[in-house]
UniProtKB/TrEMBL annotation:
SUPFAM superfamilies: P-loop containing nucleoside triphosphate hydrolases (SSF52540)
Protein name: NitT/TauT family transport system ATP-binding protein
Provenance organism: Roseibium marinum
Alphabetic keyword roster: ATP-binding, Nucleotide-binding, Transport
Domain (ABC transporter): residue spans on this chain: 28-260
GO molecular function: ATP binding; ATP hydrolysis activity
Top-level division of the source organism's lineage: Bacteria
Protein family: Belongs to the ABC transporter superfamily.
Keyword ATP-binding attached: yes
Length: 274
């Protein structure tokens, strides 16, 4: 072939733009994030490298202030890298954000109080355009998160757990390839949290979305994740990227098994060293 340059295809992306399970959804390479200057400078993350495979479920845990939210925000293009590189589905975080390759779920549901549940779920489609999303998708997603029949309820008429379900449905409505979740169940009571943990695993298996999930809870990290990224603090850095060798589907009762207790104990020891 004369005079035709080969197309440059970013790693992790095939020529048709699809990812395969062994490809990285997110590659973080030698990432440093610093805030402020001079005496007030804070190194939130130092030399962090991690590869998150497409379709995987990764939980992130570490002591308060070790940089968990900062890492999630850097992947989401909400915080700039000071050094190093982040590649999201073969693109820069800014391009991945523009292409709506990921959605973010925060600890607070941040719903618009004057809009019904279904209108909150619809919001990203109204703001960014529906693209290929079917009109029935918001209602279907409310059903997926267990809120069929509550489509017209206002946020003030829903419990905290229900509001967070609406936030998850809203995050899924654009069919993101990656879901970034920052302590999404941290403000909920234990029973509701457990229930949402099981539901989130079901949603993950149904959608095939890559999930990166920050938590302070050792059982939650071990129950949900295929891998747990443990961060140490001062400065924030990778302590261990640990595989959780437990089969799916997982049930809450699996947390009583010896294998689960041993994994949790290992995570606790790691955190004590952080
Ligand atoms: N916008 C910012 N400006 C200045 N410093 C910041 C900013 N965001 C985070 N930091 C600092 O960076 C460090 C990491 O913060 P980060 O919120 O990422 O930690 P975390 O592990 O998520 O904490 P927690 O578990 O308490 O939520 C902390 O020292 C924090 O004070």
């Amino acid at each position: 072939m004369i005079g035709q340059a080969a197309a440059v295809i970013p790693s992790g992306v095939s020529p048709d733009g699809m990812t395969s399970p062994d490809q990285a959804a997110v590659s973080v390479r030698n990432l440093d994030v610093r805030f402020g200057d001079g005496e007030n400078a804070v190194t939130a993350l130092s030399d962090v490298s991690v590869e998150i495979k497409a379709g995987s479920f990764v939980t992130m845990i570490g002591p308060s202030g070790c940089g968990k939210s900062t890492l999630l925000r850097a992947i989401a293009d909400l915080v700039p890298a000071s050094e190093g590189e982040i590649v999201v589905l073969g693109h820069t975080p800014a391009d991945a954000r523009r292409d709506r390759n990921f959605s973010f779920v925060f600890q607070e549901a941040t719903l618009l109080p004057w809009r019904s549940a279904i209108d909150n779920v619809r919001l990203p489609l109204e703001v960014g355009g529906g693209g290929t999303v079917d009109d029935g998708e918001p209602a279907r997603l409310l059903e997926v998160v267990g809120l069929a029949g509550r489509e017209n309820a206002l946020p003030s008429e829903l419990s905290g757990g229900m509001r967070q379900r609406v936030a998850i449905a809203r995050a899924l409505v654009t069919k993101p390839k990656i879901l970034l979740m920052d302590e999404p169940f941290g403000a909920l009571d234990e029973i509701t949290r457990d229930k949402l943990n099981e539901e989130l695993l079901r949603i993950w298996q149904e959608t095939g979305t890559t999930i990166v999930f920050v938590t302070h809870s050792i059982p939650e990290a071990a129950f949900l994740g295929q891998q747990v990224l443990v961060l140490a603090s001062h400065p924030g850095r990778v302590k261990e990227f640990m595989a959780v060798d437990l089969p799916y589907p997982r049930r809450l009762t699996d947390r009583d098994t010896l294998a689960f207790v041993e994994i949790s104990a290992h995570l606790r020891r790691l955190l004590e060293e952080c």
